[in-house]
Design brief:
With 281 residues, the chain is of the alpha/beta class. Helices cover 29% and strands 27% of the residues.
C-alpha cells in the first residue's frame, strides 16, 4: 500500500481484516449467507440460530460440519456449514418473512418488515434484577479494547464482549460485522449451555442497532452497552423488552436510554445531577 502522512510518502505491506462469505445450511438446504471474519464459525452458527429463534439450546442441534465448499484446487474453503437439527425442532419457513442474506455491516438486510424482525425472546429479561456499579460499567470499554488482539493488528474489526456484573470478561469475539461478533459471543454461550445470559453485560464496539438489541434480548442479556449511539428502534425495543440500553459509554460518562434502575450510581453524583437539573429550570 501507499502510506501518506503529511508530506511523507512510503510503500509498505499492511495487515487487513479478513472477510469471506459463510453459508449456513439446515439439513442441506441453504438458509443464510453472511459476510464474516473466518474463525469461531460454529459459535457464529449457534448464535445466529439462537438469536433468530430457530434453536434455544445446544440440544436443538444434532450435528454440524463444514462441507461442499472448495477452491479451484479442490481445497476446502470452510465457507459452508451444514446443520442437522435435532428431531422435533422445526425448520423455519424463510419464504414468508425474510431473505436471509446479510452483509457484514447490516444483519437485517432483506427483512420484509419491522414486524417480521420483532422476534420474541423466550426469556423474561425484564425480570432480571441484576445491578451494575457505574464504575464497573465505565471500565468496560478499556477492557474490551485491551482484549481485541486482531483489531490491534488491523484496526478493522468490531468486537463484542460478555462481562459479568462485576466486570469480569467471560467471552470476547471479533468480526468485520457487529452482528456477527455478537452472534459468536451468544453462540459460545449456547455451546456451553449457559443460556439465558441473565446477570451479564454485553459490551459492543460502535453503535447499537435494532438487531443487536434484539440479539441481546433473545439471549436473555439484561444490559447492553456501546461506545457509540443507539438507533431509535434500538431504544424502543430495549424499553419494550426490558433491556438496559447504554450508549456513548466512554471516559467518565454514558447515556442510559432504558432500564436505568439497574445502574448503581453513587448518591453524591446523582444529587449533583439533580441539582443541575433544578438549576436549569
Amino acid at each position: 500500500m501507499l502510506r501518506i502522512r503529511g508530506a511523507h510518502r512510503s510503500t509498505r505491506p499492511d495487515t487487513v481484516a479478513s472477510e469471506e462469505p459463510l453459508e449456513i445450511r439446515l439439513d442441506g438446504t441453504p438458509l443464510a449467507v453472511t459476510m464474516r471474519t473466518p474463525g469461531h464459525d460454529f459459535d457464529l452458527v449457534h448464535g445466529f440460530l439462537a438469536t433468530e429463534g430457530v434453536i434455544t439450546s445446544r440440544e436443538d442441534i444434532a450435528a454440524l460440519r463444514y462441507c461442499d465448499s472448495v477452491d479451484d484446487e479442490g481445497r476446502n474453503t470452510y465457507n459452508v456449514v451444514d446443520v442437522d437439527l435435532a428431531p422435533g425442532v422445526p425448520v423455519p419457513d424463510t419464504a414468508l418473512d425474510r431473505n436471509f442474506y446479510t452483509t457484514s455491516s447490516c444483519g437485517v438486510c432483506g427483512k420484509a418488515s419491522i414486524d417480521a424482525i420483532r422476534t420474541r425472546s423466550r426469556f423474561d429479561v425484564a425480570a432480571d434484577d441484576v445491578r451494575v456499579e457505574l464504575a464497573t460499567l465505565l471500565a468496560l470499554p478499556d477492557r474490551l479494547r485491551a482484549a481485541q488482539e486482531v483489531f490491534e493488528k488491523t484496526g478493522g474489526l468490531h468486537a463484542a464482549g460478555l462481562f459479568t456484573a462485576d466486570g469480569d470478561l467471560v467471552a470476547l469475539r471479533e468480526d468485520v460485522g457487529r452482528h456477527n461478533a455478537v452472534d459468536k459471543v451468544v453462540g459460545d454461550a449456547v455451546r456451553a449451555g449457559r443460556l439465558p445470559l441473565a446477570g451479564h453485560v454485553l459490551m459492543v464496539s460502535g453503535r447499537t442497532s435494532f438487531e443487536l438489541t434484539q440479539k441481546a434480548a433473545m439471549a436473555g442479556v439484561p444490559v447492553l452497552a456501546a461506545v457509540s449511539a443507539p438507533s431509535s428502534l434500538a431504544v424502543e425495543l430495549a424499553e419494550s423488552s426490558g433491556v438496559t440500553l447504554v450508549g456513548f459509554l466512554r471516559g467518565d460518562g454514558c447515556n442510559v436510554y432504558s432500564g436505568a434502575g439497574r445502574l448503581v450510581v453513587p448518591a453524591a453524583e446523582l444529587a449533583d445531577h439533580v441539582g443541575e437539573q433544578r438549576a436549569q429550570h
